[in-house]
């Protein structure tokens, strides 16, 4: 599948070979249920690849459906009455790019629809570590 925007050029600007990302995408797609995943958008303007926060390494959770994302948030007390969660639909290449440019994101966890997230635990899914990006990431 061809990437419709300048995502691949942006990888190249960060020293990551677009061919490497294309191969990574080709290996990931058969393992994932779709092309778009849902992430919680931070309260600040940092979005999916936010570099704000504590500076601690973190794992970006990407859910196959909004329902599983909200279930995870409810079970883990992440939903506050005053601030309803904001989900953002993000294509797989953009999620990889968020990890490439977000210095605190050490891994992506793609959570399938079939996941039943338990309280206090990361859900099961497909993990992509930062090292899989190759290049200067």
Explain the overall architecture:
The protein has one domain. It contains four helices and five strands; from the N terminus they run ααββαβαββ. It has helices at residues 7-13, 18-28, 66-75, 92-101; strands spanning 36-40, 58-63, 87-91, 105-111, 126-129. The two termini are 23 Å apart.
- Give the overall silhouette: globular
- Helix count, per DSSP? 4
Helix content: 25-40%
User: What share of the residues does DSSP label as strand, in percent?
Assistant: 15-25%
Major pleated sheet: 3 strands, mixed
Structural class label: alpha+beta
Radius of gyration: 15 Å
The H-and-E topology, N to C, reads as HHEEHEHEE
Number of domains: 1
Mean pLDDT: 86
Distance between the termini: 23 Å
Strand order, biggest sheet? 2-4-5
**Unreliably modeled segments:** 44-52
Number of strands: 5
Q: Can you give keywords for this protein?
A:
137 residues, 5 strands, alpha+beta, three-stranded mixed beta sheet, two-stranded antiparallel sheet
